[in-house]
Input
Amino acid sequence: MNHLFKRTLIFLCAVFSLFFTSCKAQSQLIEGEEETLVRENLQYYLYYPKEYEEKKEEDFGLLLFLHGGGESGDTLGIIKKNGPPKLIAEGKQFPFLILAPQNPYKRKWWNVRAVMQLLDSVVQNNRVDTDRLYLTGLSRGGSAAWEIAVQYPHTFAAMAVVCGMTPIPYASWINKNMPIWVFHGTEDKSIPFSESEEMVEKLKQMRYPVKFTVYEGVGHNSWEQAYTTEELYTWFMKQSKTE
Output
């Protein structure tokens, strides 16, 4: 009798255990909503051409420049190492404003939403021709430029990307009326040349107005040649946004 009772008790315990385990394992789908707030502190340089003060009735174009990963952090002066900020520090004059923000995170991608909020603020508080906004970036900044072109397809009149990387499907979401100029070195070990090569090929197939400058034998520092190409800036100046 005791033996039968023990077997019955063990059986019942096993049944209850399976029942409660089954109850705990059931999945649930709930609805929720939460308003999020993301704050970003962006340091930046803003360059004004000398004509800006002389021609007070004129609106000027503006070039948004996004640096590479090596210039990220909290020391603003470091972004003068490359691109237009470097040329400005060396004395070069440009015919348009140049906005050069700094990505505060050494190990994170650009917060493109924050960058665009900064751009909006600068445009609103200066004499800027919104039909002549230009976009450029190198390396990680070049990748961010591709992303911005996708998320804000009707903002810029032209874009130049130097050794950036981008998913090929982005090609379908970029404004087909925006001229694009891509630069890349064939021996780039950080961001493979194929990143630009394949994207440019896709854009050409889709009949985008795209130019491609290939630097044979050049590594990741293709920006040294790209941003000293005077034709790049005259090319920008020829572009005006069309919807």
Notes: Residues 127 and 199 are 35 Å apart (CA to CA). The chain has eight helices and seven strands.
